[in-house]
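Below is the data:
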Amino acid sequence: VGVFKPIANPEAETEELVYVFIPYTSYDQFTALDEVLQQDKAYQTAGEAYLRAPYDHPPYDRIETILLNAFVNSPHVQFPELTSPKSGRVYELRSYEGPTEAYYHNKVEMFNKGDEIGLFKRLGFNAVFYGEVVAGSRMPNLMYLTTFENQQSRDEHWAAFSKDAYWKELSARPEYQHNVSRNQQIFLHPTDYSDI
């Protein structure tokens, strides 16, 4: 399980967010989680303050769930090979929205058949996952999470990406034009108790 918090930005809203990434092996495992936790005595005891918070002091405003299917060319979670302290790491969660379903599927194809995933691997982006959003508030969209030792490493990796000859050729192909209408980037750091 990965647990992440946004990297502080003095210009951003003061809303406190927590991102939790839970990989599942099946849809049934996902739908059974709530019942499993209800029956888990250790979870119920450890989380009592959270689970039994008073109605007028809830521990959150809302919970948003996004369900993804892994890309064909990246079907499993990859654990990043980083050595820096967790507090200095930069994890970048990206969401690419398509203007229509057809353009969205075209962008997914670009990652798989076009081997944009291979480009990220070759350049050492340490991606944790690539996924198609099947339930969420910004559909049609895909999401992926890349990881870096620190902000400088992140900036250097993206500079290398934008200069890469294969990226220039791939992104110039006529069949892959206009397939992203919005690109959202969220910079995160793992909590001390995150497994990822």
Observations:
- The radius of gyration is 18 Å.
- The chain has a mean pLDDT of 96.
- Strands lie at 2-6, 19-21, 67-70, 90-97, 129-135, 141-148, 182-190.
- Helices lie at 27-39, 41-46, 48-51, 101-112, 116-122, 151-163, 165-172.
